[in-house]
C-alpha cells in the first residue's frame, strides 16, 4: 500500500457505558474510501475524531502524518467536512455562506466569492446560490453542504451520509458528484450505511460493526470470491452428494448451488459431477459477492 493518508492506533472511544469504537487500527491510502456500517457502528464518531472535534478515550489518529488530537487546525486546513445534520444559518444565502467557509479555509476575501460561485455551479446550485439556505429543499441542502466542504480545495473530504434523505434522482446526482471529486485530486471518505452506494463510488472499504473494525482493504479484494454458482435443471441431491464426497463445500437453495474448494478447480469438479450424475445444467459462473454479503457474514462471525 502507498503511504497512508489516515492512520489510527489502538483507537477507543466511550460515551459513558457505550463503547463507540473498540481498538481500531487503521492504515488507509489515498483514493475514494467507503466507511460502511449500520447506524450506530461508530462511523460519525470516527470522522469527528479524525477532525479533532472529539478526543478519543485512548489511542491516536494521524491525517497526512499530523496528529488530529495535538494539531487539529493543521489537519482541518487540509480536510473538508460534510456533516450529516444541517449546519446552515437559515437567513444567509448559499453564496454568502460558502464564500464565508472559503475564507475560513484560508482563501483571501477577494477570491472567496468567485470560488464559491464556481463550486456552487459545480454542485448544481448556480441558479439558487442567492436564495436563503432556509428555503432550500433537502437535496439542495445536501449539495450546499458538499460545496462548503470542497470550496477551499482540500486534499481530503469527509462525507457523513451525503445521500441521506435524497430521492432517487438526487441520490444519483450526489453519487456522480462524489465520483468526480477524484478528478480534482481530492481523496474522499464516504460514510454510509447504504452498501450499494459504496460499491458504486469507492475503491477502498473500511467496515465497522458496533465500534469494531471488520475489514480494511480494497473493494476488489473484499468482493473476490472463490465460489462458483450453478443452477441445475433437475433435483440437485445426487450432484451435491458427489461434490461433497470430493471435499467441496456446497450451499443449496432450491436448484441453485454455491460450491467452494480449498484445493483444485471448482469448475472441473462440477463438470465431473454433472457427467457422473447426469443432472442437467441451466447456468454456471463465478459467484458475484456484494458488500452486503460480506458485511452480513462478518457481522454473524463477529457476533
Q: How would you summarize this macromolecular structure in one to three sentences?
A:
36% of the residues lie in helices and 27% in strands. It contains eleven helices and 14 strands. A hairpin with a 2-residue loop joins strand 1 and strand 2.
Q: How would you sum up this structure, described in words?
A:
- This protein is an alpha/beta fold and 303 residues long.
- It has two domains: 6-223, P-loop containing nucleotide triphosphate hydrolases (Rossmann fold); 228-287, Alpha-Beta Plaits (2-Layer Sandwich).
- The protein contains eleven helices and 14 strands.
- It has helices at 43-50, 72-76, 94-104, 109-122, 138-150, 168-181, 195-201, 219-223, 237-245, 266-277, 291-302, and strands spanning 6-15, 18-28, 32-36, 58-63, 66-67, 79-82, 156-160, 187-192, 204-209, 212-218, 228-232, 249-253, 256-260, 281-286.
- The protein has a six-stranded mixed β-sheet with strand order 6-7-8-3-9-10, with helices on both faces. A four-stranded antiparallel β-sheet has the order 2-1-4-5. A four-stranded antiparallel β-sheet has the order 12-13-11-14, with helices on one face.
- A hairpin with a 2-residue loop joins β4 (58-63) and β5 (66-67).
- The longest helix has 14 residues, at 109-122.
- It starts with 5 loop residues before the first strand and ends with a helix.
- The mean pLDDT is 91.
Amino acid at each position: 500500500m502507498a503511504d497512508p493518508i489516515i492512520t489510527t492506533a489502538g483507537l477507543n472511544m466511550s460515551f459513558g457505558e457505550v463503547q463507540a469504537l473498540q481498538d481500531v487500527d487503521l492504515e488507509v491510502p489515498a483514493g475514494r474510501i467507503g466507511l460502511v456500517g449500520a447506524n450506530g457502528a461508530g462511523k460519525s464518531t470516527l470522522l469527528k475524531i479524525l477532525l479533532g472535534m472529539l478526543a478519543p478515550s485512548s489511542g491516536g489518529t494521524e491525517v497526512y502524518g499530523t496528529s488530529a488530537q495535538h494539531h487539529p487546525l493543521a489537519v482541518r486546513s487540509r480536510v473538508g467536512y460534510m456533516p450529516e445534520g444541517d449546519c446552515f444559518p437559515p437567513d444567509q444565502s448559499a453564496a454568502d455562506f460558502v464564500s464565508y467557509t472559503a475564507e475560513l479555509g484560508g482563501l483571501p476575501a477577494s477570491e472567496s466569492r468567485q470560488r464559491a460561485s464556481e463550486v456552487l455551479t459545480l454542485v448544481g446550485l448556480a441558479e439558487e446560490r442567492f436564495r436563503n439556505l432556509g428555503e432550500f429543499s433537502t437535496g439542495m441542502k445536501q449539495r450546499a453542504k458538499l460545496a462548503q466542504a470542497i470550496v477551499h480545495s482540500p486534499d481530503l473530504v469527509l462525507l457523513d451520509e451525503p445521500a441521506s434523505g435524497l430521492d432517487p434522482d438526487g441520490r444519483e446526482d450526489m453519487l456522480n458528484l462524489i465520483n468526480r471529486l477524484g478528478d480534482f485530486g481530492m481523496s474522499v471518505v464516504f460514510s454510509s450505511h447504504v452498501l450499494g452506494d459504496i460499491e458504486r463510488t469507492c475503491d477502498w472499504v473500511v467496515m465497522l460493526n458496533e465500534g469494531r473494525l471488520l475489514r480494511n482493504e480494497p473493494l476488489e479484494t473484499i468482493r473476490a470470491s472463490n465460489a462458483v454458482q450453478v443452477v441445475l435443471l433437475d433435483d440437485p441431491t445426487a450432484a451435491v452428494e458427489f461434490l461433497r464426497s470430493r471435499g467441496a463445500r456446497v450451499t443449496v437453495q432450491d436448484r441453485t448451488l454455491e460450491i467452494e474448494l480449498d484445493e483444485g478447480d471448482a469448475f472441473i469438479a462440477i463438470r465431473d459431477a454433472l457427467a457422473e450424475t447426469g443432472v442437467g445444467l441451466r447456468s454456471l459462473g463465478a459467484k458475484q459477492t456484494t458488500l452486503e454479503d460480506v458485511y452480513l457474514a462478518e457481522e454473524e462471525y463477529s457476533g
